[in-house]
Amino acid sequence: MMSLRSFRDPVLVALSLVALWQVLHHIAGDSAITAPAPTLTHLWEMIGQARFLPHLRETGLAFLQALAIACGGGILIGVVLGGHRLTGEVAEPILVGLYSVPKITLYPVILLLFGLGMPAKVAFGALHGIIPVVLFTMNAVRNVNRTYLRTGRTMRLAPMQTAWFILIPATLPEIFTGLRMNQSISCIKSS
Asked: CA geometry: angle at 133 spanning 132 and 136, to 5°?
């Protein structure tokens, strides 16, 4: 059962942010920042309009597609790179360097390749989310305790049994860390 405190803390943070917003409006004026009440009223009116739902649906669909591509592709690429040490060592600095490039600089290339619309949104969201998943998965596969793998060979486990009973349980915590990062990044970038 959830405690009252678990609901109280987020409410206090939200109220504090709204109070800070009101203070900033009072200090800076209406030309710099709008007051919370008119902004929330406008938001409520926007949500009530019929044209709001199709946009919400398209954004949600773009997010889910980008998330699926980044998760599936990232895990697949990460397992392959983590399983082959030389390829992973060559690819890791390239991926880290590519991830540090501001993705907005790649947006014109994405627009040229995918055009305007849903495919570009999905590609942009997936591009942002796939690299953390690849890096976390690659490192998870690389860091599997070699004793577990030797034990699997001693027990004469088939490759699928080794993957199911050794690799998946050993790598899941790190892979889920990458997936959690991917979820938040894809959400921001695909909308």
From this structure: 80
Token code pair at residue 119: 């495919």
Q: What does the alpha-carbon distance between residue 114 and residue 22 come to, in Å, rounded to a whole number?
A: 42
Give 136: exposed, middle or buried? Use CB within 10 Å, 0-12, 13-18, 19+.
buried
The predicted-structure confidence for 73-116, as pLDDT tens digits, reads as follows 988 898 889 888 888 889 999 998 888 888 788 888 888 999 88
Report the C-alpha gap between 178 and 136 in whole angstroms.
5
Q: Using CA of residue 107, residue 108, residue 110, residue 116, what is the dihedral sign?
A: positive
The sign of the dihedral angle between the CA atoms of 144, 145, 146, 147 is negative
* The two structure tokens encoding residue 105: 């600089």
* Burial label, 168 (beta-carbon count in 10 A; 0-12, 13-18, 19+): exposed
In the chain, the amino acid numbered 44 is: W
**Which residue is it, tokens 């790179």?**
81
A 10 A CB-CB count for 53 gives 10
Total Cβ atoms within 10 A of residue 39? 14
Mind listing the pLDDT tens digit for each residue in 153-190?
Answer: 899 988 888 888 888 888 888 888 777 776 666 666 55
Closest CA to 100 of 52, 54, 132, 56: 132
